Amino acid sequence: MSSLNLDLLKQFLDSQYSRNLVFKTENIEIVLMCWLPGQKTVVHDHGVSDAITFVLDGEMSCITYYPDGTQQNSVLKKGEMELIPVGIKHEVKNNSTSNITTLHIYSPPLSSENANQSLGYNNETQTQTISLNDQVLNYLVGCVPEDLLKLFSQKEKQRKTVTIIGGGFSGTLVAAQFMKQHISNEELQIILIERAPRFARGFAYSTNSPKHFLNVPAGKMSAFAGDMNHFLEWVQKRNPTISASSFVPRMLYGEYLENVLFQADQNKASNIKFKRINDEALNISIDEKNNQAIVYLESGINIKTDHVVLAVGNYPPKNPNVKESNFYNSDKYSRDPWSAKATSGFEINDSVLLIGTGLTMIDKAVELNHKKHSGKIYALSRHGLIPQTHDLNSGSINADFKKVLEEKTLKQIVKSIRAEIKQVLIEGGDWRAYIDSLRPHIQTLWQSLDQKNKKQFFRHIRPYWDTHRHRIPDQAAIIIETMINCKQLEIISGRVIEFREKENCVEVFYKRRGSDHIESLTVSKVINCTGSEQDFCQIQDPLIINLLEQGLIKPDSMSLGLEADKNGALLDSNNQISKILYTLGPTLKGQLWETTAVPEIRVQAESLAKNILTKFMDPLKNSARS
Hints:
Layout: E1 18-24, E2 29-35, E3 50-57, E4 60-65, E5 71-76, E6 81-84, E7 89-93, E8 100-107, H1 134-140, H2 145-148, H3 154-157, E9 160-165, H4 169-181, E10 188-194, H5 230-238, H6 250-267, E11 272-278, E12 281-287, E13 292-297, E14 302-305, E15 307-310, E16 333-334, E17 352-355, H7 359-370, E18 377-381, H8 402-406, H9 410-426, H10 431-438, H11 442-448, H12 451-469, H13 474-485, E19 489-501, E20 506-512, E21 518-523, E22 525-528, H14 542-550, E23 569-571, E24 577-583, H15 589-592, H16 598-616, H17 619-625
Parallel strand pairs: 9-10, 9-15, 10-11, 15-24, 16-22, 17-18, 17-22, 18-19
Antiparallel strand pairs: 1-2, 2-8, 3-6, 3-8, 4-5, 4-7, 12-13, 13-14, 19-20, 20-21, 23-24
Helix pairs in contact: 4-6, 4-16, 7-13
């Protein structure tokens, strides 16, 4: 790998600061900028790109503007850097009396379609390689091809290796826990694989809408169960007015997760190597002789590893069951509500159908409202129930739930819960406090039910449980209530029968709940908001398909995820517990039910890392601890 002298690219212009291209691929763009005294940018964001500003010489003045309306003034000195996540606006200026040079890294590269600024270059040279500060480069991008070769050096092969597939919330937390907990003398290599351009955020926290709020107060969103104020303290450095009961934008939480991964990388022990690879895992094979696995990537790279953690998170929703499925190939339909195309391709006064009335529907309706959409919005689900609203004054209750936990059937459990909530209300309490206090016991209750009772819950109780358990903050509730009251948003209880696509619209035929009469409505776009596909036999992911075909994984009996033991070790088609393959998070929903949110996943990540690391400890350490 050759190096480039950045001094050769320096150009200072009297008219404005200069932008000089250093390096660019499909995943990353590096630009050298040169500033005379007084030169500055306008207030801008970077579209769908994350960005880093790194000061090479001089001092750069920065103002960062956050979605909550606050701003932060800072001065970056030589060798310091600033992260600007997607959706965050900032401006920079040379307030000094000297020339300064800065290095700017964007992932993915900026484009005129997704960035609010001029993108011209003042040079015509594009280099192929460059030596950069590892702290900067590793923060935004995974391994480049040359770096991947290091994974297969003799020294790296001797390291114990854990490969984590999925670099979203679950993958980020378990990677951070490996780096945080490893105290053995054993050389350890952690590889985090993510097919999306951005690590740490996943679907939930990749949004760049300031109106997408967390559905849980800031005081309960720490990434670490042992440090419950970790997120709160981090976010209060941005805005001291934020309290434990505040609901903050999800994009800000995404930035927090990036920082969690970054800090874990920076503070890890010297005998740990951490690599991030921006690639897609297509298959895994098991080397029974050496008790290892080989992970096959789309790029052609094969990684030999001692353990694999499937942190695959959530998948796009399943398509509604209708007579003809050809419509699902249309541009007027969006199966993935989080794709950039979901809320585009139609005019602001066009009608839109949101299928589903849960949290995703709330997000999309609020997003459309923020974009000044004035057209009619229909939201349709079988029960037509929308999430309840948080009440920060609901307080807490002191209950042991002994009677509920002693019940044997779903009917008995529901009856006891209703009776106890009624008593809470009589005593002046709030049902929300009861539900929140019951949450730590949900996994125990779920596991106590037999298959028949679980199916009954799924069929009859789930819609009511979800709307009371998964609530929304006032910020979102007020917007939704206003949209409903002014007749812009209409909630329909029913099911879709058929889609008929026309040149400029879609005719949707449906039956209201309890009726055989077929009605229709006309919209310009249909967005699927029904929630993640959970039946792994239906998931069209090459990795999952190949693992199922080999019998290395097994869907759970409820078709809500995968079978695993209590430690997250996956079961194969013969019910054998794997010594190599593990999982956590949403894939365990069939076994735990309550396993898709921060409180459960942070505990699973800590426990999983601890369990695997004990297998890596050298004999001396093991004997000392036993």
